[in-house]
Amino acid sequence: MTSEELLEELVEEAAHLVVDSSHVVALVGAGHSVESGIPPFRGPGGLWTKYGEPDMLGYQSFMRDPKKWWEERMSGTGPLQELIDALDQARPNPGHYALAELEQMGQLQHIITQNIDNLHQEAGSTAITEIHGSRVKLRCIGCNTRWPIDEFTVEELPPKCPECGGMVKSDTVMFGEPIPHDALEECIRQSRMCTCMLLVGTSGTVYPAAGFPQDVKMAGGKLIEVNPNETALTPLCDIILRTLAGTSLPMLVERVRQLAAA
Ligand SMILES: [Zn+2]
Q: Is 32 one of the catalytic residues?
């Protein structure tokens, strides 16, 4: 059997699994956005490889001097400027569009993404929990109200929440910052309902996200890995599509469409 035939056979199995599952969730990690031109953090060309590991107490530094953080951000000189520039250039890839189509067909109930890049929304997905926040939103650390950045008027630094007077920061979760509880609760709720989870470009090493597939598996659900590389979650997976998401997800969606129509 050639590798193309093997891939087609695995896609066929995965498509049946998706169509036969009552609640499908995609857990998406940084690997998926690399296909859209966003540099990874670790490994060759990674941002941390170039600039050194980030401040692991980023949130504590922010809380010590939020005004300084806001000034750096507004002047565009922070250490993450290269990442911010890459994010500005990034566009959804075929894998993002495939997930959006799967949702529109009623075959994907939710996306849990570890990415902050807003590319799922740009591709047309709507049922999304951004566990590490979103680059296009601000969030109040007091009451978790979120605003699109361009709809929030900054009148003082740091800005204050008009609802509760709490401090407003980027929605993006910093190192040392707890995952916002509303996002975490939604991820747990989705994982409990999930009978089939697609693991797309996630390394399976960053918690709490890496725990969700383990919960699904323990509850009797199925796992489909879509990743060019082996991961910490590979041993748990029922079907493994060892390709970029942009390659095999469009194939999967096409087959799901045929099965669902039959
Ligand atoms: Zn608030």
A: no
